[in-house]
Design a protein that fits this description.
Elements (H helix, E strand, L loop, with lengths): L2 H20 L5 H32 L4 H18 L1 H12 L10 H12 L1 H5 L3 H28 L4 H33 L16 H12 L8 H30 L5 H19 L1 H12 L4 H6 L53 H17 L3 H28 L12
């Protein structure tokens, strides 16, 4: 029922009550039937709204294969669009030169483009990014829809169901996307093979060569470097992102009076959901990035004394570029293994000699205040808004296309 009809029904009893003052007492016999008619219409409209809501809930239960394909294509598109920016941020975070070679985002972007080009420069590491993004988002959306539907069917509050489903879906997908992120990040930092413009400490011929070398020299566990830190940031982000998105979609459909809310509201709900979740999880991103990207003390590296940072870093002996020897007094900067990482360490800020996220949060807040916890919140807001907007808008568009040209018959309750 539209807002106009609700307002009309609200005022119709008042109009029927004004009539007896202008006519005779006989109109009192007609007032009661009028009020009863309004009540009957209200009950009918309420039942119609409830039925419509149930029907719409059934309509959005697309087959699982549709959700997985739409999510995989949408998520991969969003990641590929942002890949060049991710490369620049990786170079900034993993730059071993002192002072750093890459400073601002814009100047670093132009420098990499001019010196190394697009394919081997800005889009280095795109192959493992694609190989991890597509199956990762495929798994994510399949697990998300499965969890969401079953949790709602057992009577869980819808908002809690969205929150829990996003959390579980990202946990399932992390098994795929974390190893691909390790490969992608090293290749992004390296650039081309035997790169004359940037000495990163890595020098792989291809994605396959990188995977083989890492497993051979560092062990299979090195592909999951930073796994725990990644989960601490990405699980809350995915849970909040989809809880916000589902709620905003509900509000948008109520505002539009239809399940087809139009491109403008699709972009608005998708981008604000990702942006808001990105802002709320910014402190986790700050701690994760600081722990993984800060420079190890020279004395600690030279003496071989393990610290929380040095103990988490895998050996670099397999990927040392020709002519680069990690000798006694050379500082080593570890790199983050999942994007988007939009926080760079402020010069002179406290060193986090801990692998605990909660201890790190306390140290940052104690020494730098609330502003330190939200350092880099602007770039993170832009990053997560664009990536989330691209992924979720394409997801909805592809779902509508698959609804018009279904791959499988039946509704979302099917096992496919």
């Amino acid at each position: 029922m539209s807002v106009v009809s609700r307002i009309a029904n609200f005022f119709s009893p008042l109009e029927s009550q004004v009539a007896p003052d202008k006519t005779s007492s006989s109109s009192s016999h007609t007032a009661t039937p009028a009020i009863e008619g309004v009540q009957l219409r209200s009950q009918y409209n309420a039942s119609s709204d409830q039925q419509l809501s149930m029907e719409e809930e059934e309509e959005v239960r697309h087959p699982y294969i549709h959700c997985m394909l739409a999510g995989g294509l949408g998520g991969t598109s969003g990641d590929l669009i942002m890949h060049s920016i991710d490369t620049v941020k990786t170079r900034q975070q993993g730059d071993p030169h002192m002072p750093p070679k890459y400073t601002s985002l814009s100047s670093s972007y132009v420098k990499i483009l001019r010196q190394e080009g697009v394919r081997r420069g800005l889009y280095s590491g795109v192959t493992p990014a694609f190989l991890g993004s597509f199956p990762g988002t495929l798994i994510f959306f399949g697990c998300y829809e499965y969890s969401k539907r079953h949790l709602i069917d057992v009577g869980m509050n819808h908002s809690l169901a969205y929150l829990a489903s996003g959390f579980l879906a990202d946990l399932a997908a992390s098994v795929v996307y974390v190893p691909s992120e390790v490969l992608k990040t090293r290749l992004q930092l390296q650039g081309r093979y035997n790169n004359p413009h940037f000495k990163s400490g890595y020098n792989y011929r291809s994605t396959l060569h990188a995977a083989r070398t890492i497993i051979k020299d560092e062990g299979f566990a090195a592909l999951f470097y930073g796994y725990r830190a990644t989960l601490f940031r990405d699980l809350p982000f995915s849970a909040l992102q989809f809880a916000f998105y589902e709620q905003e979609q509900t509000w948008a459909k109520q505002y539009a009076g239809s399940k087809d809310i139009g491109l403008g509201l699709e972009v608005l709900t998708a981008s604000t959901a990702g942006g808001l979740a990105g802002v709320m999880t910014c402190p986790l991103d700050v701690v994760k990035t600081r722990v993984q990207t800060q420079v190890n003390p020279t004395e600690t590296v030279s003496k071989g004394i393990p610290t929380a940072r040095s103990s988490q870093k895998p050996s670099l002996k397999s990927s040392i570029a020709p002519g680069i020897a990690h000798q006694g007094k050379q500082s080593i900067r570890t790199i983050s293994t999942s994007s988007p990482n939009t926080t760079l360490r402020k010069p002179g800020s406290v060193t986090l000699d801990t692998s605990s996220v909660f201890t790190g949060l306390k140290l940052v807040y104690k020494t730098e205040g609330l502003a330190g916890c939200f350092r880099g919140v602007g770039p993170r807001l832009v990053w997560t808004s664009v990536q989330s907007g691209t992924m979720l808008v394409l997801y909805q568009m592809l779902l509508r296309q698959l609804e018009a040209y279904p791959l499988v018959p039946g509704n979302g309750n099917a096992t496919i």
